[in-house]
Amino acid sequence: QVQLVESGGGLVQPGGSLRLSCAASGRSFSNYAMGWFRQAPGKEREFVAAISSSSRTTYYADSVKGRFTISRDNAKNTAYLQMNSLKPEDTAVYYCAADQTPILYGRTKSGDVYDYWGQGTQVTVSS
Fold it and tell me: In the predicted model, what is the mean pLDDT of the chain?
């Protein structure tokens, strides 16, 4: 069993930055691939980024590529999402998720493959 807790959300102006953290409890964090998803009001949940257990592979949604960076520190049982050049359309609740499959693969961008989810953290980009 893995419990995930996100933090780091808040209100930021367009062009600003935030770093989200996802702290995991339980064993075997280093064996899980980690993903970030987001859901804006009235919209479906969408994939943002994912990282393999070893950090060797990362995936990004086209909408965040070049602006967001996913990383992890297995010694601290924590995954991160560094978000730069934020836009109003990035406003959403951001969720981290853990997949027991350590590598990234074709279905990594689907939320259905993830086994554990956090409660979410609100990110609002507005002037």
Answer: 96
